[in-house]
DNA sequence: GTCAATGTATGACAAATATCATATTTTAAA
DNA sequence: TTTAAAATATGATATTTGTCATACATTGAC
């Protein structure tokens, strides 16, 4: 069993407030998993009795809408925690979490986390701040959905993907989403998404080579996203 | 100075976890305000150094989008708290709060609230749960914006208004929003909103008499909202 | 390697929604 | 009360976006 002390999740998440003793406690009760690309971590409607620490990989949080389309609400990457909201609310999850690449995650049972809440105020505050940050993002995201055109949202999303997940050595976006997934992020039909990507490609904003997307004109994209 | 002990906000919000001593402390440091319809409680970009308790009235939380339209993110009513997110995040607010009716609010300084966080775990947990609930609502709202048509969202919103703010004796919606505000809630142009209201009126889903809107066929509206 | 399945791409068209113009009604100020 | 301003309503039209059809490309199982 590996220690939690040097874990990337500890370094970047609310867990950085935990002391040595607490980390040892956590290491003793955690369960480690490997999750293959495409597999679920949890599904909409499930009860999540703890928190997942993402050691490696990226996953999507999505919600199936009434018309059968999967809306991607958020992408989560290594160093972050998953499932906090449902665990704290004592509700079933409102979102499904699906791996976009092979992942390494650890599960910490609810009981343990609630113990930390009681003993360690800094940890509580960190979790609170994270959730407040999520809430702000979600509200801003909602306004984008309501007020921006599909083209603006696509421009915004491409920039977000580069800023958040970085580039390969050849300059292309590190994260590779299918067109359907990208459409699911911006909330549009797959065909509309493909059409706009083609347009961006033709007007020199981006380059599309096979599955790889490269942002060529950041400034113009930024202006387009407003 | 009135005591906080019998206040409606204490009854319905996270504050119910506070004990007598804490309530007395709070009563001693609070500031009470009257806010007239149309006035701001705070504006997007301001620093909020505390929490507002809404004793009476309803306000809208909105965000000005790049195209100049005001998107209403949430309505908040008496018994609820306001400004928690920004206070906890230590960030300026991302939303403006404007009174939809005359309001009575109390302001509790941040220092006091942080003290309660340290001393009273149940209070911390309550605040956390509230924010988690807000996050869930916001995510769900975002998916509606992204996936539903304007008609579906209008149906959904009318039902929400009746469920949340109730009816007058004549059966009409208690809360009266202008067409522009209603359009701002569902994220559409004012004219589109007006047109759909007319359509709902003609097809017998609702009745419009002057400013008053009455829901006539809940079930059909529910089916329409999916 | 072959082939089916899936993903990507594009055209044609339909539907939804925004925009602009203008009329009518309501509200509030003088 | 009168009058200007604002809100509501509706038509005409343009634009955006979705849907359906189809073609082509890529992938993975056998």
What do these coordinates show?
Two copies of one chain form a homodimer. Chain A has 226 residues and is of the alpha+beta class. Chain A has two domains: 3-145, Jelly Rolls; 148-225, Arc Repressor Mutant, subunit A. Chain A is 46% helix and 23% strand. Chain A contains nine helices and ten strands. In chain A, the strands form three sheets. Chain A has a four-stranded antiparallel beta sheet. In chain A, strand 4 and strand 5 form a beta hairpin. Chain A is elongated. The mean pLDDT of chain A is 94. The interface between A and B is large, with 42 and 43 residues. Chain A binds a DNA duplex (30 and 30 nucleotides) through helix 8.
Task: List its salient traits.
homodimer, 226 residues, alpha+beta, Jelly Rolls, Arc Repressor Mutant, subunit A, 2 domains, four-stranded antiparallel beta sheet, 46% helix, DNA-binding, transcription (chains A, B), DNA binding (chains A, B)
């Amino acid at each position: 069993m590996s220690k939690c002390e040097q874990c990337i999740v500890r370094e970047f998440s609310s867990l950085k407030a935990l002391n040595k003793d607490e980390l040892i406690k956590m290491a003793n009760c955690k369960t480690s998993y490997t999750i293959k690309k495409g597999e679920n971590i949890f599904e909409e409607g499930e009860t999540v009795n703890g928190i997942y620490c993402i050691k490696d990989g990226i996953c999507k949080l999505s919600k199936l809408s009434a018309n059968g389309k999967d809306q991607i609400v958020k992408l989560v990457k290594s160093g972050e925690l998953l499932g906090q909201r449902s665990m704290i609310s004592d509700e079933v999850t409102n979102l499904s979490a699906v791996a976009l690449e092979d992942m390494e995650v650890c599960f910490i049972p609810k009981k343990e986390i609630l113990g930390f809440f009681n003993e360690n105020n800094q940890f509580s505050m960190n979790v609170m701040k994270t959730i407040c940050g999520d809430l702000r993002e979600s509200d801003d995201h909602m306004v984008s959905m309501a007020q921006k055109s599909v083209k603006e949202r696509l421009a915004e999303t491409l920039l977000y993907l580069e800023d958040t997940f970085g580039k390969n050595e050849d300059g292309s976006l590190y994260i590779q989403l299918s067109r359907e997934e990208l459409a699911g992020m911006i909330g549009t039909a797959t065909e509309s998404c493909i059409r706009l990507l083609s347009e961006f490609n033709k007007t020199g904003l981006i380059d599309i080579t096979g599955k790889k997307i490269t942002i060529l004109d950041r400034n113009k994209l930024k202006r387009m996203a407003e």
